Prior knowledge:
Elements: H1 8-21, H2 26-47, E1 90-91, H3 92-111, H4 115-136, E2 137-138, E3 143-144, E4 147-148, E5 154-155, H5 161-168, H6 173-183, H7 216-228, H8 235-252, H9 283-297, E6 299-302, E7 307-310, E8 321-328, E9 331-338, E10 341-345, E11 352-354
Parallel strand pairs: 7-11
Antiparallel strand pairs: 1-4, 2-3, 4-5, 6-7, 8-9, 9-10
Helix pairs in contact: 1-2, 1-3, 2-3, 3-4, 3-5, 5-7, 7-8, 7-9
Amino acid sequence: MYYGTVDATPLFVMLLAETRRWGASPDAVQTLLPAADAALDWISHFGDRDGDGFVEYQRATDRGLINQGWKDSFDGINDAAGHLAQAPIALCEVQGYVYAAILARAELAEEFGQSDKAEKLREQAAELRTKFSEAFWIPEKGWYAVALDGNKRRVDALTSNVGHCLWSGIVTDEHAEQLVHHLATAEMDSGFGLRTLASGMGAFNPMSYHNGSVWPHDTAIAVAGLLRYRHIPGAVGLATRLSNGLLDAATAFGGRLPELFCGFQRSRFSAPVPYPTSCSPQAWASAAPLLLVRSFLGLEPDVPHRTVTVLPHVPARWGRVELTDLRLGGTAVDLAVDGEQVIATNLPEDWRLITH
């Protein structure tokens, strides 16, 4: 059977824990725990082709996708000079997804009485984080390689993929500070969102599919990652700027964000330039504004522990933000955020609202 995707497996495990936090029933989640364990087993024994601790991909025949991450175009993974990476390829963001998946399974193990398993999984995640930092970080450039190629060389282009690493939590604070600096440059920030590839790279083309275009979901994930590292200087400011640009693009597209659009600098064109064959509507793009809202609210529900965390950094232009009938398992609450003020109504007495 052919899937052509290397990242769906860890993302499934991440999603399972997320659904539990939002109120999926314990019975439903426990039913899927064997599938989650099978996913982690695949990551260790099949996704990691050579035993180096990283998940790689390589197609088995001359058919199907050459690249099997979210940037799945044939030329989507390249180095700073523009040379194509040779398989098997280990993408930086996929290792981040694996890290988050292991921690997600540890969280579920803890809840369902498997504390020993949870501890071993956390140790495994910590080991992966260290190995990832050693293998993917490029000290002389100040960013992560987009991938390791078949010879374990760092594919050294500056890409939006590092924003996904921030989102997963695999990034150290020291490295996050340098990533914020590079993502904030005009090479990455088009003014309407984050470019997939920095304009100074050899393969950059603002009209390409993955080498300089702007994908709304990609920018939203980077914003979520920056706000995860809100304690890093400049992270919140950059997240706000990227979000404002993306929402301005949404307005220009009549309120419907497309799959992607061209990555020309905003100073050259007053409106985002459409990508000719972009899907519109598209599910990823449609979800992007929702992720922006959640991220700037700092909204983290935890139904098993009966807490709702709201740590807002809402852009001033948004004004007051209200969420009504927010379903958290069998509970529905209303939230209002006005600046730093957080108001929750209909929150059951045995729940806690965490705002700092």
